[in-house]
Amino acid sequence: QLRKQLIKLQGSLAALDGRERHAAHKTLSAGWAMLKRQEEALAEQIISQSEVVCATLVSLGSSALRSRSFPMVVVDECTQATEPRVAIALARASGQLVLVGDQQQLAPICLSEEARDTGLSVSLFVRAVGSGVPPSLLAVQYRMHPLICGWPSAQSTTL
């Protein structure tokens, strides 16, 4: 409701004269600040009542999650993430950090040659496995019918 009122007021600015426009700008600034506080309070309430929070690596650094820690953080498709992004997740993990991925698939996208030279094109997952951390292989997947996944599985094991 407040957002609609602010948008409506913003749309009427052009029709206002100097003093009215100045007053409307002050009202808009205060209104947008109030809306932001309300949204942050609502996000805080939702997150604090949640047993599971799903987020992107970058959004773990957002104001809503910045002060939180979690007993377990699972990073899916970790082999595609650069180490600085995984570091955000690591900072939120008060207990376990689980890295999930397939080092035979896509590596992190690294467009900068300088970033590649510093090692950002190698994921933390690949570094960990290369350093001797034993990976666990999931032997059964439940997302695809066996007839569909059978042929690619057979072909990839013969390569």
Automatic annotation (TrEMBL):
GO molecular function, one term: 5'-3' DNA helicase activity
Listed SUPFAM superfamilies: P-loop containing nucleoside triphosphate hydrolases
UniProt superkingdom: Eukaryota
Domain DNA2/NAM7 helicase helicase: 18-113
InterPro entries: Coronavir_polyprotein_1ab, DNA2/NAM7_AAA_11, P-loop_NTPase
Pfam families per record: AAA_11
PANTHER family per the UniProt record, alphabetical: DNA-BINDING PROTEIN SMUBP-2, DNA2/NAM7 HELICASE FAMILY MEMBER
Protein's UniProt name: DNA2/NAM7 helicase helicase domain-containing protein
Annotated source species: Calcidiscus leptoporus
